[in-house]
Amino acid sequence: MTEARADEDTTTLEEQIAREIEEDIIFGRLEPGARLREEHLHQRFGGSRHFVRQALVRLERVGIVVRERNKGAAVRSFSAEEVLQIYEVREMLQRQAALRIRLPARPEDVARIAAIHAEYERCADAGDLGGVHDANDRFHTALFGLCGNEYLLALVKQYMDLTYAIRAKTLADPAQLAVSRAHHALMIEYLGGSDPWPLAELCVHHVRPSKDVYLQRIAARDAVASRGRRRGQRA
Predict the structure, then answer these.
(1) What angle do the packed helices 196-234 and 80-99 form, to 10 degrees?
(2) Which domains does the chain show, CATH number per domain?
(3) Where are the alpha helices (DSSP H) in the chain?
(4) Which end of the chain is more exposed for a tag (fewer CB within 10 A), N or C?
(5) Could you give the angle at which helices 174-191 and 107-126 cross, rounded to 10 degrees?
């Protein structure tokens, strides 16, 4: 095997491991705070532990995995205040990006984004959650890419990545998926208009259900912990 081919295979295995862990997080199979033990991942994926470590490094780099000294890697868990602050920034970025889109958008750009949405809907109908996630991110990257500012787009993508763990389960929820599909279709319709404000407001409204669901989960977790402490005090 040539050195170039070996590097290619290594990268592919790292990407495969990272992608599968990422999907487990996004679709709620791994909860926030869940430990990512190297020995378990090695048993699951095989190969060298080096590939597992590099995959975790990839996920740490985008902010959905954290490493703690003497504890190892875990799915990133956010406090309620962190969620509110992250989404405040994400909403500002997406609103500004949408407001910068020149309307009506060029027909070829609308057609390109509509084609991604069609793939998104095919994956949703087929129950292909991995395809749904991939098409969803490509849809929004293409949409906000019309803002004409690569630095702003990079920040939008950074906060999309940062909220992977927060977005967990919503794409797998049939009711929320139906809402998302309707929003995407409306965004495409707005690209043919002349007023960017409805598009910008929809882009902000579109991300709030994930935030709300995560905050509800934090509240439920805290309520359970509080009841446990009270029982412990009475015992």
Answers:
(1) 180
(2) 3-75 (1.10.10.10), 80-222 (1.20.120.530)
(3) 3-26, 38-45, 49-62, 80-99, 107-126, 129-144, 150-162, 174-191, 196-234
(4) C
(5) 170
For 57, 71, 121, 161, the CA distances from 168, given in Å and listed in that order, are: 20, 23, 19, 12
Q: What is the pTM of this model?
A: 0.81
Per run of 10 residues, the mean pLDDT along the chain (length 235 residues) is: 43 84 81 88 85 90 84 90 96 98 98 98 91 93 98 96 78 87 98 97 95 90 74 67
As a dihedral over the C-alpha atoms of residue 121, residue 182, residue 218, residue 130, rounded to 10 degrees, the angle is: 10
Question: Distance between CA 10 and CA 33 in Å, rounded?
Answer: 28
Nearest to 119 by CA among 107, 106, 136, 101: 136
In the beta sheet, which residues pair with residue 75?
A: 65
Question: How is residue 191 written in tokens?
Answer: 């690209």
Query: Which tokens go with 146?
Result: 């019309």
Which pLDDT does position 194 carry in this prediction? Answer: 96
- What is the rounded distance in angstroms from the CA atom of residue 73 to the CA atom of residue 64? 10
d(CA 146, CA 164): 23
